[in-house]
Specification:
about 950 residues, alpha+beta, Rossmann fold, D-amino Acid Aminotransferase, Chain A, domain 1, six-stranded antiparallel beta sheet, 33 strands
């Protein structure tokens, strides 16, 4: 998994490249901050970089690990640190951070003892030992004693612990009064409690690793400290501005610091659109800079992070974290690359002579990224809206609509305004025939007249036939679902980061890239922008010829089909029972509210919707709505906002509970997310009592307040989002099957052609001598059903549960290769990203309105390529056994027929090649096809 820079030549042609290895778990080694650092190092032309990768680190003997001159290696969950230490002893690279000393961070007592020794202030503390003291390797303890003169592994007798009263603890005769902080001695245990005295309300606040947007929770009845293990008790420090300080060192002479809201405040994490906790750069005093220098030197960690508090004119260090990167700061990335480069250059003369050819053979045996196959959902879109009409085909007055089918028996999609008018004309003609449903016909005609000129509007004619007679004709009018400006940023951002990743892992992948897309406008637009950024035109000089990119449109693989229509209708009928009273949700469903069933949450949601509708109507009558939000995007304005929400209110408030349609959950959740991103000011103002301006609109005050109505979004709006999310997580994943058998058959009918194409790509990677990258852009239905087919297979699934698959979510099949003598060995791991997902009401926004795509995580463990192919091919065999021939061909008859083919004789093709040029390198363009959504 190595790459060297070739866009920038080394300063001296004969100068050998410095070999930098990265031995850390993939989720860290291939993270966005690490990619930014490594890309800058490559750009210097001085490095060859090898990311070892999980496959090498976990499965290979250290003798087969790549040989390098310099090593970046650090511990995280699952990392075999002892194995890495043995590798360092074997190959003796220069380590950026000392590896053995990283074990110090596993015990807070040892960290604090070293901080005491080097004179770094910490809060007053008591130690309650129940485990005999720190369990540290003798060699590490000896090293610390030699360098710092302190013995950190001395046995510690069991402490005498008692409570003098509800507000006072006594440990080995020493007292501490509340408030105090209770920390487990294990540095990997982040379940910290803060206990408050009765005079401050009592109880405690539990701190924990961030879960979503929550980092702590108040526990009013928690009074007594834990007695099940060893703990450290620190006197609580009442910090300035309710902020912590995160400090990052780059060697002993450079330090960067940022403030963040303390988790003690309310436990709600402030996030930016990248999903990262909001922080502000702050300046350190000379004394604080000296503390940073001393910590970096004492712990022998050039790149190191620690937490600090300021109070009463003093600074206290409360934790040292080891390897830590600043996120999203280009100045820091530039400085880090500069300092690392200089560090390596200084150390070069002291390196041993180049290893012999025999010893260097592990480089040839290392696993290299050979191929990637990625299936991605499109980027952010506007909410989809629809009206559905059902007419009985045997009624005389429906003849004008039956005539639109032109004798066809399959679904027809009309997109052209002229063709949409045909539907309105048919409505007019039907209205004068005997028995006509005038109310429905008038509603259909009006919506066509209103929306026929709106980009992306379409009408679906869906007939159902029995004995060659049309029983039912469903007419569905759809609009919305358009590509947004946020989607442009998302597509470009993920492409640029994938490009950086593959440039580091194996740059030749970029030379053999294919991009496939469905025919929908928003999907084509996503694919175009992705391709432009992934194949980075900015690297071309102005004199070079403009490159023409190609997208391959594959309707048969990536467009929606009606093949699974009947099975999905059966599932929808079953889903309605999920929201009936008395239903107990099955354990495998995502339902965290044990004390309530979904029916109760639906009722609460309806009551909230009724209240918010009244609030909106009141504010509409009393406020100057045109002035609430001066700038609108995505072609919206106040009237369209109201039209969309009136439709939602009607769906939720104006139907009986018995007739409630669970599919409305997705539409509500969709609109809430969209307006929270694109119309935050209007959303929060129009749904606030008396139209008050919400505090969250302040640029430095994100939605970080508890749901008490005092600040942030209106309380009822937050409560509505919470319930919509609960119901969405329950219902949306089940739309593609509740039982295993349903998930399988819907998956086969929807995505088997795509899965078989992936298998062919895997076989091509096995046979080919060169690397390749294949990208497939599609819609939500294909992502869900493809992931279902993977998780239902016998592949070794390691992800506990599949998350919400939001815009730009993607599943990736990565093929790794290594040589074994004259033969080759190939292995595959499947990874999954949940896409651009965040709790949007708690995201602080900028003008892009774009949530960042979340990093991919392992969906499966590594497994040999032949085994993966054999397992995935079982789905095809299962389809044959079930005689699902309609899903193993081009799906003729199950893809909708375009109106142009019906009325203009322009036949649709299953595969088209779309070419486009980049006219301004590095910019972002709108894109689309003549196919709406």
């Amino acid at each position: 998994m190595s790459s060297s820079a070739d866009s920038t030549e080394p300063s001296t042609p004969a100068e050998p490249l410095m070999r930098l290895g990265v031995a850390a778990m993939d989720r860290k080694a291939r993270s966005r901050p690490m990619r930014n650092i490594l890309s800058r190092l490559l750009a210097t032309g001085k490095f060859e970089i090898t990311v070892f990768g999980d496959k090498v680190i976990l499965d290979e003997d250290i003798e087969n690990w790549p040989v390098c001159d310099f090593l970046i290696s650090f511990y995280s969950d699952g990392f075999p640190i002892d194995k890495a230490i043995a590798y360092v002893e074997l190959r003796k690279p220069v380590c950026v951070n000392d590896l053995p000393l990283q074990k110090i961070f596993w015990d807070r007592r040892v960290v604090l003892q070293i901080l005491d020794k080097i004179g770094v202030p910490t809060p007053a503390r008591l130690e309650c030992n129940r485990d005999g003291g720190p369990q540290l390797d003798k060699g590490i303890a000896d090293q610390i004693q030699q360098s710092l003169g302190v013995r950190v592994d001395k046995p510690r007798p069991t402490s005498d612990f008692s409570m003098e009263d509800d507000d006072t603890i006594v440990v080995d005769g020493r007292k501490m009064h509340k408030p105090f902080v209770e920390k487990p001695v294990s540095g990997e245990n982040h379940n910290v409690n803060i206990y408050f005295p009765k005079s401050k309300g009592g109880g405690a606040r539990r701190l924990f690793r961030k879960v979503g947007n929550q980092s702590s929770a108040h526990e009013p009845d928690m009074v007594t400290p834990r007695t099940d293990a060893s703990y450290i008790y620190e006197q609580f420090v009442d910090v300035e501005n309710a902020e912590d300080i995160k400090v990052y060192t780059l060697g002993p002479n450079f330090v960067h610091a940022e403030t963040r809201k303390s988790p003690v405040v309310d436990g709600i994490v402030r996030r930016n659109t990248e999903g990262k906790e909001i922080r502000f750069i702050c300046q350190l005093t000379d004394a604080e800079k000296k503390m940073a220098r001393d910590i970096s030197i004492a712990f022998k960690q050039n790149i190191c992070g620690f937490d600090m508090l300021r109070a009463g004119g003093q600074s206290f260090v409360i934790d040292v974290n080891g390897w830590s990167f600043v996120k999203g700061n280009d100045f820091y990335y530039d400085k880090c690359a500069e300092i690392l480069t200089n560090f390596c250059l200084r150390k070069m003369p002291s390196l041993p002579k180049p290893v012999t050819e025999e010893a260097d053979k592990p480089r040839e045996k290392s696993w290299t990224l050979k191929s990637t196959i990625c299936v991605a959902r499109h980027g952010d879109r506007t909410p989809k809206c629809k009206l559905k009409f059902k007419f009985k085909g045997r009624d005389v007055w429906t003849k004008p609509f039956i005539a639109l089918l032109q004798g066809r028996t399959t679904e027809i999609i009309l997109r052209d305004p002229v063709q949409l008018q045909y539907v309105a004309d048919a409505s007019e003609a039907a209205s004068i025939l005997p028995g006509a449903d005038l109310e429905q016909l008038e509603q259909l005609r009006k919506i066509i007249d209103k929306k026929k000129s709106t980009i992306g509007t379409k009408v679906q004619l869906k007939p159902s036939f029995t004995d060659d007679v049309c029983d039912v004709l469903a007419i569905v009018v759809k609009w919305g679902g358009e590509f947004t400006h946020a989607a442009r940023y998302q597509a470009r951002d993920i492409a640029e980061n994938m490009r950086k990743d593959y440039t580091i892992m194996n740059k030749t992948l970029l030379d053999h890239t294919n991009v496939y897309t469905s025919s929908e406008r928003r999907v084509v637009a996503t694919a175009e922008i992705f391709t432009t950024a992934f194949l980075d035109e900015r690297e071309r000089s102005p004199a070079q010829k403009q490159q023409t990119h190609q997208l391959i449109i594959r309707k048969d693989l990536l467009d929606d089909s009606s093949a699974a229509k009947d099975e999905m209708e059966k599932v929808k009928r079953k889903l309605k029972t999920l929201c009936r009273p008395g239903l107990h949700v099955r354990p495998e469903f995502a339902w965290p509210v044990k004390e309530k069933d979904p029916f109760e949450v639906v009722k609460e949601t309806i009551e909230l919707m009724k209240s918010l509708r009244a609030t909106m109507h009141e504010n509409w009558d009393t406020l100057e709505v045109e002035k609430i939000q001066p700038r609108w995007c995505c072609g919206e304005y106040p009237y369209l906002f109201r039209e969309r929400w009136e439709g939602l209110f009607g769906d939720w408030c104006d139907v009986s509970l018995e007739k409630f349609d669970p599919s409305r959950v997705s539409e509500l959740y969709d609109s809430l997310k969209y307006d929270a991103l694109h119309n935050r000011t209007f959303l929060e103002t129009i749904f606030a009592k008396n139209g008050s301006r919400p505090a969250s609109i302040d640029s430095r005050s994100p939605v970080d307040a508890p749901a008490n109505g005092e600040s942030g979004p209106p309380r009822q709006l937050r409560e509505l989002y919470k319930r919509a999310k609960l119901l969405f997580d329950l219902i949306a994943p089940q739309e593609y099957g509740i039982e295993r058998s349903e998930k399988e058959i819907i998956g086969l009918l929807t995505s088997l052609p795509l899965l078989e194409q992936i298998v062919r790509d895997l076989q091509a990677a096995q046979a080919s001598d060169y690397p390749s990258a294949n990208f497939y852009f599609t819609k939500e239905s294909h992502i869900h059903t493809l992931v279902n087919l993977v998780t239902l297979s016998d592949l070794p699934i390691v992800m506990p549960h599949v998350p919400e698959l939001d815009y730009m979510s993607y599943v990736s099949f990565e093929v790794y290769e290594r040589s074994k003598g004259s033969s080759k060995e190939l292995s595959v791991r499947v990874t999954l990203s949940e896409g651009a997902h965040s709790a949007v009401l708690d995201a602080s926004l900028d003008a892009k309105h774009a949530l960042q795509v979340q990093p991919r995580r392992a969906l499966t463990d590594y497994i040999s390529l032949p085994r993966v192919i054999e397992i995935l091919q079982r789905h095809s065999k299962k389809a044959d056994q079930m005689k699902l021939t309609k899903s193993t061909t081009k799906i003729e008859g199950f893809l909708p027929v375009e109106g142009d083919e019906v009325f203009r004789g322009q036949a649709s093709r299953m595969e088209e090649i779309r070419s486009f040029q980049v006219h301004r390198p590095g910019s972002v363009y709108s894109a689309g096809s003549d196919k709406g959504e």
